[in-house]
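Lab notebook, page 48
Experiment: co-folding of the full assembly
Goal: obtain a model of how the components sit together before planning crosslinking
Operator: M.T.
Materials (sequences as entered):
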Amino acid sequence: MFRQFRDSVAVALTEALESLELPSADLGIEEPPEDLPATLASSVAFRLAGEMGAAPPQVAQTVADAIDPDGVDYLSAVDTQGPYVNFHTNDAYLADTLETAQADSYGRLEDQKTSVVVEHTSANPTGPVHVGRARNPIVGDAVANLLDFAGYDVDRHYYVNDAGRQMAVFTWAYETFDETALEDEPARDRVEYDLVRYYRKGNHFLENAEPAEVEAAEAEITSILQGLEAGDEAAYERVGTVVDQVLGGMKDCLARLPAAFDEFVKETRFMRDGSTTAVADRLKESEYAVYEEDAWQLDLSAHGFEKNLVFLRSDETSLYTTRDLAHHEWKFDNYDRAVTVLGEDHKLQAGQLQAALEILGNDTDRLDDVIYSYVNLPEGKMSTRRGTGVMLDDLLDESIDRAREEVESRLDDRIRNDDLDADDIDRIAHQVGIGAVRYDIVSKQPTKAITFEWDRALDFEAQSAPYVQYVHARCCGILDEADTMPELGAIDPAALSDPAAIDLLRTIARFPAVVEAAADEHKPHIVATYTREFAEAFNGFYRECPVLSADDPAVRDARLALVSASKHTVANALSIIGVAAPDSM
RNA sequence: GGGCGUGUGGCCUAGCGGAUCAGGGCGAGGGGUUCCUAACCCCUCGAUCGCGGGUUCGAAUCCCGUCACGCCCGCCA
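Observation: model returned without errors.
Model output:
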């Protein structure tokens, strides 16, 4: 109801200002500090003071007097406090919130009639997913969930870089070396842990072998790349053998988060269908194209980039960005909007891509990037090639193990006699363990650098996933024990008179606005912050207001409805950030 | 050298022009459970928001400068 209230206040305030013949371009509507009773406030008086030749508090009073609360949705009264005009909600605001939030889908926004493709992760299929890039699937999945919940028609894509030099090296190494030549056993019984050993072996060979041997290897690698460029079916198959296996393993790892994709889009697709060549041809025709040092380049100085972007090598083969151009035009053909989640190291490339897309005549306003910083180890960067780094699988395992210990240590002093069995313990360990990892990452602004430390990443204390998950479990516990749910029509919202209950209901009322703001800015961490605020509000209510043992049946029913609304709110907020909502824990 | 990003109490973090807004959390110290799960709650200690200027009625928030850290500046991806 918060969004509706905000809209109606904006209209009322605009009309009031117009009636006073004052400018209404900047309404200055904001949320007042927590300890004030008003739901919304306006700071227009500051800006109008000069124009009216009066002090801000007086201006505020004049404006407030010009608004008649009657007929304005959810508005009960307008008053002032110093220079601020404050807007208070009426009973219907809370009553409608309580009723609306009874729906499982509470918070989901209206259909935006817009399709959007969210591309995330897109890690080269060279080996196991490590924590350094784990931010990508976690943030990416949350962004996709968020847009979906905000009413967009979302597809999730993983762009597979299967045409680059790295994959050619990998393919050559896989075909060349015998398993007996590999030094270590796979770190884990899954295909990408097995095959990455060939990749590392190959890279090691190229860096250390005799020049003649390296030259021969390079010739083979080049022939693979040229085969791909020439549309040679055998080359696709050779590379595909490696790519599909490794990708399959990575997919299994990502599924643990869980992060799932609607489509894995291979870049070779845009070589095979001729669109990459077509893009290059069109670029050649553009006014920004230059042919220097035997290679076709784009002069992007007018777009703010110092150096030229090479889009065709001297041997006529395409580069990553050229293929990505064809890829993005394909996105534009099939979707209204495109969001890409990518590491800060790709930022320059993304900017060049966007400039080139504009040169090709695309409307790049349809494209948005979400940039995140890599997670580094205290001793430096993680690297698949060098085999340094913490694997996401290991992080998840460790987190689940610690969560399991936590559950087991709590079993003895559980008050609730719901007899958790082995399956429950396993379920809770997974929900909490994986939830904690995701929450830790999704709750921070992605642009902030993170240095990975086990204990910090696996903290189950307050302001973490379990803190919020526990609120959901409490809701379920109460609803479970209440034999019947009251009829919607039988609920009297007025029975919720305690400050803690009203505070909770007001927090619930804000949820759709939080979803809207987070989706508009592609910032799932806003939802994570909200879950924490929500949990605090709920815990306050839980402490102050007994539900099942409430003496007055009307109070009990109203509180029960509030718990139900709370459950939907927290469950949906958690689902957006990809954290499981346990029924018990 | 240039570009982009980050800089909030011992540590992590929210806020990113508006009201005693410097908010949470961890850590430290002290309390709370015959009552819907104490992975909870309450209290105390602790920050002039990297530093210096400027704009503004008002700046952690905007501008300029400066320092520190990260990322990038390939006919790699």
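Interpretation: The mean pLDDT of chain A is 92.
Next step: discuss with group before ordering constructs.
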